[in-house]
Amino acid sequence: MLFLKLVSDFGIFSFKFDVMMIKLLLFFEGFNIWFKNLLRELSNNIISLFFIGFVYLALWHFPQTVDLLLILNQADTFLLEVPLYFSLLIIAAFLIWNAPKYFYFHNYKDITLTNLIGFVPNQHYRFQDKSESASYNYITRIHMRKTLPRILAILLLTISALSILNAMELFGLENTYTRFLNPTNTLILIIFLLLLLSEPKLYKLLKDFLNRSAKTKFFVFIVSIGLMVLIISLGTLNTQAEKDLGNLFLSNSALVLLFFTLSFNSYRFLKRFPKKLFYTLILMSGFIMLTTFLLFNFYPSLVTGINPLSVLILSLLSLFMICFVLILLGKKMRFPLLSIVTVFCIFSAKFFSDTSDHYQLNLIETQVDRPSLDTYIYHWLKSRENIIKNADSFFPIIMASSEGGGSRAGLWAFLVHSYLYEKSNGDYFEKHLLSLTGASGGGVGNSMFFAEARNTSLQGKKSNFVIDRDTQNTNLNYKASNIYKENYLSVALLSLLGRDLFKEVTSLFNFKNRGQLLEEQWTRTHEEYFLDSKGKSIMDKEFLSFYANILISDTTDFVLQKTPPLLLVNTTHTQTGNYNIISPVEYSDVRELRGMNDFFEGLQSNYPNNSIALSTAMRINASFPFITPVGEVRKRMKTEVSMSDQYADAGYYDNIGGRVSIGIEEVLKRVLNDSFPLLKEKVRIKHLIITNEEDRKIAKTSTQLSAPLTTLKNVRYGHTKEVMKKLGEDYIISLKQTEIIPSSVNPLTGGIKKEEFSIKPVLPLGRYLSTVAIRSMEARLDSVSVDLDLILE
């Protein structure tokens, strides 16, 4: 009996095990079918995937575009810019949801040029087998066609919402959302939940559960109305403070839920809304966006009044529509038109890159000869010898180094120089400043200040860097602030994804690249406040012209006329990675600068007596990756091989230009020892370091997989800190967030406490600063005024 019982139990166990294995095999078989259908349907939504991928990279991993979320929140016209951004996202979501329908055979076979607008792409539904005997493979394929485009559209809006949460973490902001939600983990979880909806059985279970109540329709309607009210009301509460990023995140999340309820209840919605009008509106919106995009590319200055984030989405939307048209034409012609065009573009871009002169720098003839650095510094000291001897105490000789970091770095450098100039009534520039150097944005700020200070010096006048309150109604104090209030990013983004991309793959027509457009913007805004004696712009003058007739030969010696500070603009040679210095002097014998290439020496070896404009030097000093193209100078080769020297952002190599300042100090000390020994005790060499206060948290131990990339990411930051330590820490002027009172709050109102209403704006990295960020930077300037005053003593 015991034996029979054991045999029976074993048989039952074996049966249960077989059943479990069969279920497991059926599950894997079903998963395999589902996964294959997912891949098949993703291929039908390939342009949607690329669109979503670009938005994800831009809003999560590219510093200048991540910061655009901050600008969106800080915008002076928040109630206009956020609705525009949300509207573009909604148009993109509707296109991602509905565009793939046009690619099915039973739809595109009946589409013509005349009926495309207004065509209802639902013909494929008429030919579906709706019988319950249909195979799981067939049911899954049909279900996937319906749900996957909606899932991708929801994913786009979700990425946009969570990117705000991700940006808050990057900015070091903490609130309820960041404490409980990790953006990356949340995104992964939402993707998983959305994919569950693409499984037909799970979807049916969820649908049946929700439809058990007769009040479901009414509930969905109320929720939709509530979400719209929430989005609008949250927008009215914005105070431009960093805490309001939480409200922006909540608004975007509400937008996700609103679109979710609409897209997965579209059958009920379209029973009351004309289908023909629905699809007409979607396609017309897409083509209107494309037409607007093309118009902007003919007149790029029009986009300066549009938030760069909206320009980015508009540009990607337009590329989406171009791909949509190519796919649809390819379907009609039974020809893989998009694939062929893509391959052609890749190969043509490679072919034209060798011969195109689209990114060639504009060269200007010059008659200015450059002296050696030793000679220049000798005459700089000689012209100030009596001033130094007669100084009551020590005579400061200042060398300025400005760190890179987009417009905030440029404005910070410009503000510091402006303050010192105004505080000393011009003596800072005329007497004490020996050199200015920097990288990227900091170098641009140096150049903008130098151009005006040198311009008025040549006229024997003093500059005025402070805004006249009587003539301008503004809450800013410095002209530099108004110059940097301009939007220098939208045009670059538009050109990157529009006209320059077109030029790259076709080499057709001639027009200005985005680097040249940036130069024009700098020049135009600068000349609104500063002009030369003839009423012309200063920024587009030839670089060496600022040093014309500095030294005039008189028998065996030089007679010094005017000796301005040395403006040393840096850049990185793309092909070799070498540092290049755009310098008004030659420096081949300076030990600290040995190995650093002389830009003008290389340029004039191919183009004698040629130079570049100051604005061009600024541009190749601040060529942020992709946003600004590298500048090229075509080499004159004896062979038929065409080669160019290419120049990119100085920050790749040294993000503060400190080594250049060290080289200047080396020569200054040598000249003092050799020619002015009596001045040595009267002189105090001071390194003015204009930098961003960036406290980086030391990352946890990296995996062997991520360690190489982590090293590349941090090496520039580490190198900059090393150079700053060599320069010394006595005169570091750091930019950091500083509290201000919002313009919406009247500080004269009784009972208002500053600490209750003050905000501390986060300072964005890109080329577009909000007014609140600029006001915070001016407030920081006030707080470091005591430190700045010490530099002049």
Automatic annotation (TrEMBL):
Keywords tagged on the record: Membrane, Transmembrane, Transmembrane helix
Bilayer-crossing regions: 12-35, 42-62, 82-99, 151-168, 180-197, 218-237, 249-270, 277-299, 305-328, 335-353
Protein name in UniProt: Patatin-like phospholipase
Species for this entry: Aquimarina amphilecti
High-level lineage: Bacteria, Pseudomonadati, Bacteroidota, Flavobacteriia, Flavobacteriales
